[in-house]
């Protein structure tokens, strides 16, 4: 079954040029989380770098990857993938191929820019991932599996595994090099604040 984002709602390298907006985002501090904290969790000894592999299993039942693995339908079947969440819907779309082999698909038309409101997709995307891991295995991908897709996986971990934003980013980063842009990190911090305020997430 194939869904676009509107139907579902109704039923690169992260280091970009520094601008005044970029500086504000990089320094963002919420009530329970800050962008500098999340950036610190993302850094390796060599700084920020791209993943060497096209995909990595970052949590039981969740494969995080790039467009290369997303387009290799036979490989997905061999991995046991039953669902695909595409965070770059529009730029990358092989949903018709998934439909032929019974892979359920959800496309999120997100742009990898700090000003894009990815938070609007957090809860629906997390719900899709949660359904997928109960039924089988899900590939969550974007263009390089570095910014958009790991942000959505982090939102799932926060909502359904009750991890904080920092714990979620740290867990994913332990399995794959990732680097959500500072705008997405800010949105994860805002989501962290929201979940704590609503009593859906407890701080350690």
User: What is the C-level CATH assignment?
Assistant: Alpha Beta
Give the radius of gyration. 16 Å
- Strand order, sheet with most strands: 1-5-4-6-3-2
Average per-residue pLDDT, rounded, comes to 89
Order of helices and strands: EHHHEEHHEHEHEHHH
- Shape summary: globular
Low-confidence stretches: 4-18
Oligomeric status of the shown chains? single chain
CATH superfamily: Protein tyrosine phosphatase superfamily
CATH topology heading: Protein-Tyrosine Phosphatase, Chain A
Report the span from N to C terminus.
Answer: 39 Å
| Beta-strand share of residues | 5-15%
Main sheet characteristics: 6 strands, mixed
Task: Give a verbal description of the structure.
This protein is an alpha/beta fold and 204 residues long. The protein has a single domain (2-197), classed as Protein tyrosine phosphatase superfamily (Protein-Tyrosine Phosphatase, Chain A, Alpha-Beta Complex), CATH 3.90.190.10. The chain has ten helices and six strands, in the order βαααββααβαβαβααα. The chain has helices spanning 5-10, 20-26, 35-42, 67-70, 73-79, 95-101, 122-135, 148-160, 165-173, 182-197; strands spanning 2-3, 55-59, 62-65, 83-86, 104-107, 138-141. A six-stranded mixed β-sheet has the order 1-5-4-6-3-2. Strand 2 (55-59) and strand 3 form a beta hairpin. It starts with a strand and ends in a 7-residue tail after the last helix. The relative contact order is 0.21. It catalyses: O-phospho-L-seryl-[protein] + H2O = L-seryl-[protein] + phosphate; O-phospho-L-threonyl-[protein] + H2O = L-threonyl-[protein] + phosphate; O-phospho-L-tyrosyl-[protein] + H2O = L-tyrosyl-[protein] + phosphate.
């Amino acid at each position: 079954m194939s869904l676009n984002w509107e139907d579902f709602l109704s039923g690169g390298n992260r280091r970009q040029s520094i601008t005044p907006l970029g500086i504000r985002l990089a320094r963002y501090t919420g009530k329970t989380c800050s962008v500098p904290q999340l950036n610190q969790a993302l850094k390796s000894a060599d700084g920020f770098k791209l993943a060497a592999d096209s995909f990595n299993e970052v949590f039981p039942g969740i494969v995080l990857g790039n467009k290369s693995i997303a387009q290799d339908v036979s490989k997905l079947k061999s991995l046991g993938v039953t669902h695909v969440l595409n965070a770059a819907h529009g730029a990358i779309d092989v949903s018709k191929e998934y439909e032929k082999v019974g892979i359920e698909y959800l496309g999120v038309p997100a742009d990898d820019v700090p000003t894009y409101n990815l938070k609007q997709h957090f809860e629906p995307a997390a719900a899709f991932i949660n359904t997928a891991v109960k039924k089988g295995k899900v590939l969550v991908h974007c263009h390089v599996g570095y910014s958009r897709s790991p942000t959505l996986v982090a939102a799932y971990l926060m909502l359904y595994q009750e991890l904080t934003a920092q714990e979620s980013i740290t867990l994913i980063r332990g399995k794959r090099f990732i680097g959500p842009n500072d705008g997405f990190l800010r949105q994860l911090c805002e989501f962290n604040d929201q979940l704590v305020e609503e009593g859906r997430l407890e701080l350690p």
